[in-house]
């Protein structure tokens, strides 16, 4: 939660000014007259990354390479007193210096908005479509080392929030449709799936800045194939109930702690139910004007592409320490740790990541970043161990 720097934030361009400059619309003439398009602001951005990775395939036998990434993006955002509307598009085009089979083109389009029905009641919605590539070393990575796994993904989300006195009620529904693109070497259709998530939350403010909450969540995963190529039914469903406390000390310190229970069942009788206590913790602590500590702890069930396991119980810890060396220069240290228990097996993995980043803001139009990190996986299955060191240099421009 670093302090805002408005003089380094992009100002954007009025949409009607852009369209009128290329002759697509006429700007209204006359005093006090304004085009409706003037209430939309356009924010273009372009990043150039040079990346080094010592272990592309996250395996014992390391293959290193350099990657060059171009990332354009464009956001159109409303500037209304009430309600909001945003349209966004972005792309990441990557080219590898030696391993051309890993080249990828990711892109995303999204529309989102909110309606302030009353002062104490609002609804929101979003829809997006993306083509992305599978990160190497992820739990669900099918392991095809001949090229990046491409995923076509659609997402829709709707939410509502109602506040009355000290009570706040909110709910969100989200559906994600994932199509893993098959190649000539591997059939990815077993992984094609739809995930539905329903989350509700009731929060009661018991003291200024302090509230208690209860949060139930339901998740359902339906695979396109009723039975996968190994003869198993992959569909599953789970519930989670958290209760906890949230404390926000005027933007200086934020703490949210939750404890509860989860249960995840699989349609396949061979796969056992994953259940037990769960919890979450989110902490942001600005212990001086220049230092910020961020902590995040979570526990989730992750699907796996391995037919020998029903799922993975993933307990994850993330931390980041930010130091404002100068007003326009921030140093960051991060450390992440994950414990992954494969249900129905003695296999367990430990993942860790340590990294360093520095970001410098030249002005509201230009910035640069340097990032260095080291990853390691220690698995009870020795063949899956890996370590990787990498980093990137980024130069970004924005308006």
Strand residue content? over 45%
Largest sheet: 18 strands, antiparallel, barrel
Distance between the termini: 23 Å
What count of helical segments does DSSP give? 1
Oligomer: single chain
**Basic shape:** globular
Q: What would CATH call the architecture?
A: Beta Barrel
Concise description?
With 399 residues, the chain is mainly β. It has 1 helix and 19 strands. A hairpin with a 6-residue loop joins β18 and β19 (386-398).
Sequence-ordered SSE layout with sheet pairings:
Elements: E1 13-14, H1 15-21, E2 40-53, E3 65-78, E4 84-96, E5 104-118, E6 121-133, E7 150-164, E8 167-180, E9 193-207, E10 210-223, E11 236-249, E12 253-266, E13 274-285, E14 291-302, E15 312-326, E16 329-342, E17 348-361, E18 366-379, E19 386-398
Antiparallel strand pairs: 1-2, 2-3, 2-19, 3-4, 4-5, 5-6, 6-7, 7-8, 8-9, 9-10, 10-11, 11-12, 12-13, 13-14, 14-15, 15-16, 16-17, 17-18, 18-19
Please tell me about this protein's structure.
The protein has an 18-stranded antiparallel beta barrel. It has one domain: Porin, CATH 2.40.160. The model has no long low-confidence stretch (mean pLDDT 90). With 399 residues, it is mainly β. The chain is globular, with a radius of gyration of 23 Å. Helices cover 2% and strands 63% of the residues. It has one helix spanning 15-21; strands at 13-14, 40-53, 65-78, 84-96, 104-118, 121-133, 150-164, 167-180, 193-207, 210-223, 236-249, 253-266, 274-285, 291-302, 312-326, 329-342, 348-361, 366-379, 386-398. The chain contains 1 helix and 19 strands. It starts with 12 loop residues before the first strand and ends with a strand.
């Amino acid at each position: 939660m670093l302090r805002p720097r408005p003089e380094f934030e992009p100002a954007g361009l009025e949409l009607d000014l852009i369209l009128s400059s290329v002759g697509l619309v006429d700007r209204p003439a006359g005093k006090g007259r304004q085009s409706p398009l003037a209430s939309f602001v356009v924010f273009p951005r372009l990043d150039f990354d040079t990346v080094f990775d010592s272990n592309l395939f996250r395996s014992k036998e390391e293959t290193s390479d350099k990657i060059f990434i171009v990332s354009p993006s464009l956001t159109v955002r409303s500037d209304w007193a009430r309600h909001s509307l945003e349209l966004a598009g972005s792309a990441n085009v990557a080219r590898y210096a030696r391993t051309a089979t890993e080249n990828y083109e990711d892109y995303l389009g999204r529309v989102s908005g909110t309606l302030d029905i009353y002062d104490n009641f609002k609804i929101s919605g979003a829809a997006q479509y993306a083509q992305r590539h599978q990160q190497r070393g992820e739990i669900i990575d099918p392991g095809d080392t001949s090229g990046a796994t491409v995923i076509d993904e659609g997402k829709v989300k709707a939410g509502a929030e109602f506040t009355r006195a000290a009570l706040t009620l909110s709910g969100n529904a989200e559906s994600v449709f994932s199509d893993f693109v098959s190649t000539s070497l591997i059939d990815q259709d077993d992984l094609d799936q739809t995930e539905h998530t329903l989350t509700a939350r009731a929060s009661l403010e018991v003291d200024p800045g302090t509230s208690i909450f209860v949060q139930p969540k339901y998740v359902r995963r339906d695979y396109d194939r009723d039975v996968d190529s190994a003869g198993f039914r992959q569909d599953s469903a789970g519930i989670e109930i958290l209760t906890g406390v949230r404390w926000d000390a005027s933007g200086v310190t934020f703490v949210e702690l939750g404890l509860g229970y989860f249960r995840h069942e699989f349609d396949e009788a061979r796969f056992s139910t994953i259940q037990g206590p769960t919890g979450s913790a989110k902490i942001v602590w600005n212990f001086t004007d220049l230092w910020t500590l961020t902590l995040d702890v979570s526990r989730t069930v992750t699907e796996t592409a391995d037919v020998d396991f029903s799922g993975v119980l993933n307990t994850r810890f993330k931390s980041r320490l930010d130091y404002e060396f100068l007003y326009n220069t921030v140093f960051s240290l991060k450390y992440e740790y994950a414990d992954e228990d494969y249900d129905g097996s003695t296999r367990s993995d430990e993942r860790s990541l340590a990294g360093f980043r520095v970001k410098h803001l030249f002005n509201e139009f230009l910035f640069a970043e340097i990032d260095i990190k080291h990853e390691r996986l220690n698995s009870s299955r020795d063949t899956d161990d890996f370590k990787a060191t990498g980093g990137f240099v980024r130069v970004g421009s924005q308006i």
